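> @MW can you paste both from yesterday?
MW: sure, first one:
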Amino acid sequence: MHIAVFDLDGTITRRDTLFPYVLGVCLRHPVRLLRMVAKMPAALLRYAFQGRDRGRLKEALIVATLEGLTRAELGQRAAGLVKRLADSGLHEEALACIAEHRRRGDYLVLMSASPDIYVPVIARALGFAETICTGVRWDGMTLRGELVTENRRGEEKVRCLQGLRQRYPKHKFAAYGNSASDVPHLKLCEGGHLVNGDDDAIREAARANVSIGWPHPQIAPGRRPQKT
């Protein structure tokens, strides 16, 4: 049995999920669209000239557009996002691979840099057992929006994967990602696969000896892993 770790945006979904989610909320709350237009240029300039910190940029977008909304409101929007993805926004190969791992009794983990505002909802809809994603701050039932974890990308995914390995030391790992920033954690797995990648990602995966393309998993079935 394997621990099967899937990235979300671009790996399972056909495109990024955060901006469409935010835009969907803003279209229903036009004042928030104005807040985004007013606040994001400065955030983009900071991103461009102060280290290209994707976490800070993500935080700025979430705070500018979603701060003050309730869990119920954001949950409704998350449910709508899941429906739109199910209609036409998911890679069929990804769904087939998830289903194959599930059939073989593997433990499914969704690991994404996208925020926990909606990623756990997507994970439950797709049948994942566990979610690792970027955490945001809440004030009770109301969103504040600042990040409370590191942005789950690049080397942070390596750290999260190492944490999974410590919890499940007797199990082999399969992992799927689509970008060059996924290669560092993919190469640490017995079955790491770069899928849906652009030219830069493919070159990076080739240098790291990471498999390119969707596999046809031949993994012995088993039971859910026991924590140690």
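MW: second:
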Amino acid sequence: MAKEQKSGRCLCGAVTFTVDELRSGMGACHCDMCRRWSSGPFMAVDCEKEVHFEGEENIGRYRSSDWAERGFCKTCGTNLFYRIVESGQYIMSVGAFDDQDYFKLKSQIFIDEKPGFYDFANETRMMTGEEVFALYSGDNND
């Protein structure tokens, strides 16, 4: 799968960013925290550590768990990223990218927390919260 450089910004433009090499596959998180934070599933793409910000002084950070923080524009409130603190890995909001047609929905996580009032028609990989934690802790049998 080819990788491309992509850019984005918050709603007011106080924060802009570029990602040097980005894959098109993205996912949706249905966990309770993401839904409260984004008022729906958090549609996001893994950017690893390769995110370059301008206007970083306008980024607010909220430590939402022992292992992660969420970033947002302090001026307009745009949700920008979910970041794994230990690794520095950025999971960026797809809605903040300029070219959103580039992305393809490939996975859904915390599917066991998804409320019943919506479903996606796309065929995707689906994982429960337990499966997600097992995958990232190395306790999976795959």
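> thanks! The chain is about 10% helix and 40% strand.
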